[in-house]
C-alpha cells in the first residue's frame, strides 16, 4: 500500500504539467487586444487647485469598446499627463506622496498612471491631484504587451481627434482628453441676485444686482459674473440648459464684484418680446465664458430653480416677465349709510372700471379699514370678486367709526388702483330699563343702563329726567367692565327718564329711548 501512495504525487505533477502546457502565456494575448478601442471621460473638465490642501481630485475613466474576457485576460490601460500639474509617478508603490508634484515631463515610456480592466469589465479609472494653474493633456492607451517600455500609444493624436486623428485610423486604442486647473473661491460664499421676481415693460432693460458674500456678510470682490437666459423670452441665442455643453454664456463677464461683493448690470430685452424668462447667474471662477460646461461650475446648477435656498452656492436663478404697458383701472366705493348704530350692518359697494375687460371683470377687490383712524394705516377686513360688469358689494358689521377703501392689486396686464375713502360713523346704542314698572309711590327703582359701543370700564353715562317739559341732568356714572351702570331713584310721581353716552374717539354719542316710569 505504501508504494501506491507514493506514486500519487508524481501522477498529480504530470497532470499539472499538462494543464500548464495548454495555458497561453501573457504575450500570446496581444492579438486579443488589438480590436478593442479606447475612450476616456470626461473629455474636458475644469478643477480648482485650492479646493483641498493637496488640490482637487481629477478622475479619468478609461472605457474600452468591449469587455476584457477569458481569452484576453485582464488588460492594462496606461496614462501620461503632460502639463503644469503633471503628477509624475506618484502615489502607492512609487514612494512619492500624491501631494508632491513629481513632474517627469511627457514620458509615455514611464506612464504616470496605470489601471487594470478586469475580466468581464469594460472600464477602470485613475486619478491625480492638480497643484498648478494651467491645462493638462492626458493621453491614455491600451497596453497590449504589459510592458511600459513599449509605447503603444498613438503619439500623434490630439484632444480633437477629428482635427488631429494621429497615426492610427480612428477609433483606435488611444484617446486624449484635457483638464484645466484654476484657483477658485474659498468655501462659504453664496451668490444672491435680486430682484428674485420682477415685471418689466416690453422693450425695457431689466436691472439686476448680485451680491457675493458669506454667511457673516463678508463680500468677495474682483470676481466675474456670467449668466444665461434659460431659453425664455428675449434669449440672445435661443439656447438653454437642454443644449449641448460648451456653448457660450449669453451674458459673459456681465459684471465684476466690487470690494463689498456687489455688482449691478442691465439685461436687455434683445428681441422686444413679451413673456417670462428664467435668468441664471453664476460666479465665473474659471473665467472661460462657457455655459453648463462641467459641474459644478459654469452654470451647471442652473436647474436649481428660482425658489432654491442653498448654502455655499455660487449660482442663483431669478425670474423676469416682460409685459405690455399696463391697462389703467379706476375703483369706486360708497357706503349704503353714512351713520349706523353699533353692530348694525352696512353695505360697501362700488365698481372696477378699465378699457381692458380682463382688468375689471372677475378681479379680486380687497376691502380695507382705516386702522388708526387717521388714514395712516389700513387693515384688510375681507375681499370680494367683481361681476362681469365690474361691480361688487361687501357687507360690514360696523363696530366703530372708520374710513373704508377698496384696493385692486396690479398684475402683468393691469395697474394697481384704490378707491377714495368711504366714511362710516358708528353711533353708540344705549339701552335703559327699570327694575320694576309701575313703582309704589316713594319707593326706589333701579334704572339699569347698557351701552353698546363703549370702551369698557370708565365710560361716562348721563341720566336725564324730564322736568317742566325739558330733559335735565340728574346725575352721571361710569360704566363697569361690561359697559353697564345702575342709577337708583325714588319715584314720587310718574317720571320720564333717558340716558346719554357721550361721543368718544371711535363712536358718536348715543341716547336711549325715553323710559316712562309709572306710579301705582
Task: Give a written overview of the molecule.
With 520 residues, this protein is mainly beta. The chain has 4 domains: 28-182, Immunoglobulin-like, CATH 2.60.40.2030; 190-323, Immunoglobulin-like, CATH 2.60.40.10; 330-426, SOR catalytic domain (Immunoglobulin-like, Sandwich); 429-517, SOR catalytic domain (Immunoglobulin-like, Sandwich). The protein contains 1 helix and 36 strands. It has one helix spanning 2-22, and strands at 38-41, 44-48, 57-64, 75-82, 113-117, 123-129, 134-143, 174-182, 190-194, 197-201, 206-213, 224-229, 247-248, 251-256, 262-267, 275-283, 290-291, 315-323, 330-331, 334-335, 339-341, 345-353, 364-370, 378-385, 391-397, 402-408, 417-418, 422-427, 429-434, 443-452, 460-467, 470-478, 484-491, 495-501, 510-511, 515-517. Strands 21, 23, 24, 26, 27 and 28 form a 6-stranded mixed beta sheet that branches. Strands 2-8-7-4-5 form a 5-stranded mixed beta sheet, with no helix packed on it. The chain has a 5-stranded mixed beta sheet with strand order 10-18-16-12-14, with no helix packed on it. The radius of gyration is 44 Å and the shape is elongated.
Which geometry do the CA atoms define? elongated
Q: Can you identify the CATH superfamily of the largest domain?
A: CalX-beta domain
Report the count of strand segments. Answer: 36
Strand content: 35-45%
- The stretches of 5 or more residues where confidence is low (pLDDT under 50) are 1-32
Q: What is the CA-based Rg, rounded? A: 44 Å
Largest sheet: 6 strands, mixed
- What is the arithmetic mean of pLDDT? 87
At CATH level 2, the architecture of the largest domain is: Sandwich
Overall number of structural domains: 4
Question: Helix amount, in percent?
Answer: under 10%
Q: What distance lies between the first and last C-alpha atoms, to the nearest angstrom?
A: 149 Å
The helix count comes to: 1
The structural class is: mainly beta
What fold name stands as the CATH topology of the largest domain? Immunoglobulin-like
Text of the CATH class of the largest domain: Mainly Beta
Amino acid at each position: 500500500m505504501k508504494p501506491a501512495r507514493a506514486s500519487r504525487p508524481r501522477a498529480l505533477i504530470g497532470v499539472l504539467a499538462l494543464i500548464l502546457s495548454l495555458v497561453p502565456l501573457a504575450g500570446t494575448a496581444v492579438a486579443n487586444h488589438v480590436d478593442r478601442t479606447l475612450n476616456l471621460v470626461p473629455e474636458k473638465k475644469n478643477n480648482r487647485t485650492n479646493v483641498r490642501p493637496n488640490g482637487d481630485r481629477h478622475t479619468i475613466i478609461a472605457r474600452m469598446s468591449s469587455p476584457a474576457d477569458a481569452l484576453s485576460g485582464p488588460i492594462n490601460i496606461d496614462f501620461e499627463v503632460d502639463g503644469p500639474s503633471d503628477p509624475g509617478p506618484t502615489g502607492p508603490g512609487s514612494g512619492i506622496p500624491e501631494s508632491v508634484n513629481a513632474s517627469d515631463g511627457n514620458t509615455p515610456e514611464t506612464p504616470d498612471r496605470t489601471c487594470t480592466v478586469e475580466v468581464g469589465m469594460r472600464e477602470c479609472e485613475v486619478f491625480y491631484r492638480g497643484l498648478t494653474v494651467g491645462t493638462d493633456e492626458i493621453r491614455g492607451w491600451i497596453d497590449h504587451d504589459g510592458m511600459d517600455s513599449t509605447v503603444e500609444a498613438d503619439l500623434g493624436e490630439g484632444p480633437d481627434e477629428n482635427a488631429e486623428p494621429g497615426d492610427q485610423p480612428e477609433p483606435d486604442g488611444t484617446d486624449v482628453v484635457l483638464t484645466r486647473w484654476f484657483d477658485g473661491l474659498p468655501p462659504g460664499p453664496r451668490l444672491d441676485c435680486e430682484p428674485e421676481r420682477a415685471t418689466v415693460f416690453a422693450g425695457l432693460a431689466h436691472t439686476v444686482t448680485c451680491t457675493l458674500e458669506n454667511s457673516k456678510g463678508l463680500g468677495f470682490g474682483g470676481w466675474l459674473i456670467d449668466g444665461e437666459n434659460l431659453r425664455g423670452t428675449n434669449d440672445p441665442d435661443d439656447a438653454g440648459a437642454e443644449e449641448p455643453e460648451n456653448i457660450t454664456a449669453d451674458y459673459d463677464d456681465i459684471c465684476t464684484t466690487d470690494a463689498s461683493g456687489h455688482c449691478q448690470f442691465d439685461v436687455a430685452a434683445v428681441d422686444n418680446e413679451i413673456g417670462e424668462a428664467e435668468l441664471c447667474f453664476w460666479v465665473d471662477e474659471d473665467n472661460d465664458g462657457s455655459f453648463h460646461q462641467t459641474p459644478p461650475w459654469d452654470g451647471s446648477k442652473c436647474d436649481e430653480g428660482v425658489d432654491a435656498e442653498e448654502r455655499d452656492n455660487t449660482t442663483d436663478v431669478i425670474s423676469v416677465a416682460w409685459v405690455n404697458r399696463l391697462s389703467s383701472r379706476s375703483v369706486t366705493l360708497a357706503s349704503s349709510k353714512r351713520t349706523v348704530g353699533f353692530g348694525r350692518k352696512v353695505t360697501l359697494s362700488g365698481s372696477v372700471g378699465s378699457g381692458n375687460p380682463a382688468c375689471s371683470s372677475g378681479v379680486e377687490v380687497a376691502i380695507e379699514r382705516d386702522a388708526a383712524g387717521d388714514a395712516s394705516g389700513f387693515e384688510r377686513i375681507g375681499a370680494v370678486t367683481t361681476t362681469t360688469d365690474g361691480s361688487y358689494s361687501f357687507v360690514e358689521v360696523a363696530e366703530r367709526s372708520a374710513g373704508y377703501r377698496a384696493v385692486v392689486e396690479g398684475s402683468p396686464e393691469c395697474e394697481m388702483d384704490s378707491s377714495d375713502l368711504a366714511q362710516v360713523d358708528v353711533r353708540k346704542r344705549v339701552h335703559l330699563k327699570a327694575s320694576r314698572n309701575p313703582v309704589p309711590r316713594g319707593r326706589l327703582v333701579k334704572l339699569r343702563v347698557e351701552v353698546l359701543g363703549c370702551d369698557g370700564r370708565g365710560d361716562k353715562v348721563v341720566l336725564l329726567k324730564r322736568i317742566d317739559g325739558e330733559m335735565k341732568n340728574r346725575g352721571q356714572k361710569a360704566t363697569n367692565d361690561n359697559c353697564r351702570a345702575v342709577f337708583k331713584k325714588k319715584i314720587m310721581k310718574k317720571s320720564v327718564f333717558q340716558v346719554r353716552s357721550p361721543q368718544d374717539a371711535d363712536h358718536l354719542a348715543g341716547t336711549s329711548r325715553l323710559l316712562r316710569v309709572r306710579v301705582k
